[in-house]
Amino acid sequence: MSYALGIVVMIVGLIVSVALHELGHLLPAKHFGARVSRYMVGFGPTLWSRTYRGTEYGIKAILLGGFVTILGMYRKASPGTVVYKDSTGKRYTQAEADALDAAEIEALKPTMAQDARLSALEELEQSRTPGVAFTELAWWRKAIVMFGGPVVNLVLSVICLGVAIGGIGYQQPTTTLARVAPCLTEATTCPEAELTGPAHAAGLRPGDRVIAWAGHPTRTWDDVREQIAASGETTSRVVIERDGTQLEVTVTPRLVDGAPVVGVTSELARHRGGVGEISSAVSQTFWGTAAVVVRLPQQVWGTVRDLVTGHERDRASVMSVVGVARVSGEITSAPGAAITLGDRAASLLSLMGSLNMALFVFNLIPLLPLDGGHIVGALYEGLRRGWARVRGVSDPGAVDTARMMPLVMVVWGLLIVMTLVLVAADIVNPVHLG
Questions:
Q1: Over the stretch 268-282, which tens digit does the pLDDT of each residue have?
Q2: Do 240 and 317 fall within a single domain?
Q3: Which residue ranges traverse the bilayer (predicted)?
């Protein structure tokens, strides 16, 4: 399989993942009656679109991303909220602005938050899409709409890992011997007795299954390796099964570079994991991804350092889409007759599962404009309205998330800088599988 094929497969997988993520927002939003004007796969010029029940569905030229436009994301400003400022920086509420003369009003500029509110209101007024504004949904419906996208990525991650581990499986060493080396060097014959392979000298053959070593049952190849390591140069009794018959031989390991060696390699067999193993893999992927996200600033800084110094990046280093695509290419083009098509497919699926888990975790960061920020806003609204009911006071209404627009701009800036740094690093100093 070619390097390019791996890149194409990963790009297609990413496009599908993002498209389904946005579908996770679209479906509950439509179900709850929100006004969804657009569902687009990609960015840039529109290549194709159709309008169905007030929503425009389309594909754009740059197929790296996608978006759903839900109208009315920001509510009107409450009375007393600062919405304008003049050239001197003086701030005005709507009532204060209304009291100014025409020339003074002309000199006013809306705040960043007010600009977002006015844009949202303009979209509502101009669109003919049926339904209600997002701000008019119940708080729990808002949370479901915003949580829908990340949940889709979580489901995709579980499916990819499940198929890779439980469907395709992976090559696992067994206790059956694949090779018994006649010599502890690369030679096929040993002119010197001290170089003779201990297992070969003991009469072991390829196809023998190791049942016990030094009196300890060997259920896995790790058990065999542990017993060899523990035996040192001590002679051990080894029970094997050959052609259905159990035999006992004695093996005396030899020290090579200080480690006991007997000169055997295991036979590989494809293992398909069950529900428990898949669950464990999903859990490990989640917590591993969460740990990376928590350390994201340090990870990016480390990438910058490696980019500047030329130091080889760690295989666990955070990557951009470019880096993930390069790794995919290495998976499909890696040499080796022992690497089967199934092994490559399982590796690609595992990588796609990890990528979707990253999308799930990253999008739940509680900062706007990420989904997690909107979810926190919805939960805060529910708490605030519930507390108002308990106290018997008037309903405070939807949360004015437009106030967070300065933070949104900062987060966007950081995301852009991080993306540029990671893309540059993945081009100049990429991570290799090794």
A1: 888 888 999 999 999
A2: no
A3: 57-74, 151-170, 357-383, 404-425
